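in:
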């Protein structure tokens, strides 16, 4: 493998607020409006449910504190990929980058884009996964898939013409769901409790652990914004600031909306509610609010799809610059100074995944690999503290070493639970990971010739 190039030709145009928007866009997706019902079916009372969401927020902020130190040390494109490369070498970093570019990030974007089409179906019934548009040979194409692909291409184009333009457009849509979540939170705070409170009975540790897996997955995604670190101005200041403000804001919003849900619904009612946000908004603000919250969820899906454009292209860009993907991936557009080729390939591959209908399965397969990457990247703080004790650290993790230990240990518990609950999917994901090994050695050999 050739040595990584020292300088990036991407434009540094993102400030702390832009990074915060990326964090929130990556975190706040449809899961926050689906997970509460799942959790309510497992926990017996509101105090336990709120405790789970608060604990998840604390662990998220702990992760933010850890990644803030590492991110400020290595403000480069690729985020987790760059940290793994510096801590453990090119082979480990490549395997993560390989599966992140072509499975994790693109699969997640395809899933969110198709979800966006389903949300739009509330307003336009002719849009949906079950509405046939035409066929390409044996492949039936739905109107939902067409809308998903159009969204991927359009939002990728906004990031193509400039990183700040793409993030600001994403921020407009993300702001809509933020306003809606704040309104739900305030409505819950000022609304008199309308359901009796059940006492917080005992909960088996195994049950609470299973719930925490779901909670943490709902919080995950906050670190993806760091893939754009190579485009952040004053990164030593703005990376920690944007990351921690984003993680803290996500925690407040998640805790707030769940408080609002439980203010107007009993635990048993929440457990049976497919759309808790719509029901809560109707009870807090009247029937007309249901349509507004549905529109906000559509905006959320657009913002989340746009935020999903960023990580895969930046990881591919970093791989290209390191000679582990064709060099075209590591070139920036001469005018817009964005990873143009990587963005185009990412958009095309995501559209293929939208058509295939296999994105959810692929993402499920790689769940274990995603968590391993969290563990490895979080643990790298100990590697850097030992190996580079005198290196400049613009931000030092508060509570070291206990906060990093807490984050790594909690991620390890999620990994263990995933392995226990999804052994076949985990093995399939590891098989996908292994396919990157020959690619790594082929590209390394090319880089040496």
């Amino acid at each position: 493998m050739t040595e990584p190039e020292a300088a990036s030709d991407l434009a540094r145009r993102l400030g702390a607020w832009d990074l915060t928007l990326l964090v929130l866009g990556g975190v706040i997706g449809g899961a926050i409006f689906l997970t509460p019902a799942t959790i309510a079916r497992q926990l017996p009372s509101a105090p336990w449910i709120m405790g789970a969401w608060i604990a998840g927020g604390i662990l998220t902020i702990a992760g933010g504190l850890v990644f803030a130190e590492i991110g400020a040390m290595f403000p480069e494109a690729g985020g987790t990929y760059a940290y793994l490369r510096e801590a453990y070498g090119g082979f480990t970093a490549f395997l993560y980058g390989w599966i992140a570019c072509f499975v994790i990030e693109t699969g997640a974007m395809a899933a969110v884009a198709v979800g966006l089409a389903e949300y739009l179906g509330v307003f336009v019934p002719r849009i949906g996964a079950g509405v046939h548009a035409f066929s390409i040979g044996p492949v039936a194409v739905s109107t939902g898939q067409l809308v998903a692909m159009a969204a991927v291409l359009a939002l990728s184009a906004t990031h193509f013409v400039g990183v700040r333009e793409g993030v600001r457009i994403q921020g407009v849509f993300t702001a809509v769901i933020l306003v809606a979540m704040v309104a739900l939170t305030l409505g819950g705070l000022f609304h008199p409790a309308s359901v009796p409170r059940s006492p917080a009975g005992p909960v088996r540790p195994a049950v609470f652990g299973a719930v925490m897996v779901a909670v943490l997955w709902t919080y995950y995604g906050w670190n993806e914004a760091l893939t754009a670190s190579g485009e952040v101005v004053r990164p030593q200041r703005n990376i920690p600031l944007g990351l921690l403000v984003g993680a803290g804001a996500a925690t407040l919003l998640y805790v707030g909306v769940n408080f609002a849900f439980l203010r107007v619904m009993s635990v048993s009612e929440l457990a049976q509610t497919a759309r808790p946000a719509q029901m809560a908004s109707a009870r807090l603000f009247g029937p007309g609010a249901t349509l507004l919250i549905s529109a906000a969820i559509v905006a959320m899906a657009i913002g989340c799809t746009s935020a999903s454009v960023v990580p895969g292209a930046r990881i591919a860009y970093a791989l290209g610059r390191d000679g582990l993907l064709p060099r075209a991936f590591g070139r920036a557009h001469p005018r817009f100074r964005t990873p143009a080729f990587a963005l185009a390939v990412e958009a095309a591959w995501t559209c293929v995944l939208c058509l295939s209908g296999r994105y959810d399965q692929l993402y499920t397969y790689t769940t274990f690999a995603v968590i391993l990457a969290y563990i490895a990247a979080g643990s790298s703080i100990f590697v850097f503290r030992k190996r580079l004790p005198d290196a400049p650290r613009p931000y030092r993790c508060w509570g070291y070493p206990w906060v990093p230990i807490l984050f790594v240990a909690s991620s390890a518990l999620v990994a263990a639970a995933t392995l226990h609950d999804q052994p076949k999917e985990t093995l399939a994901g590891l098989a996908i990971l292994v396919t990157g090994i020959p690619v790594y050695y082929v590209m390394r050999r090319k880089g040496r010739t």
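note: The longest helix spans residues 289-321.
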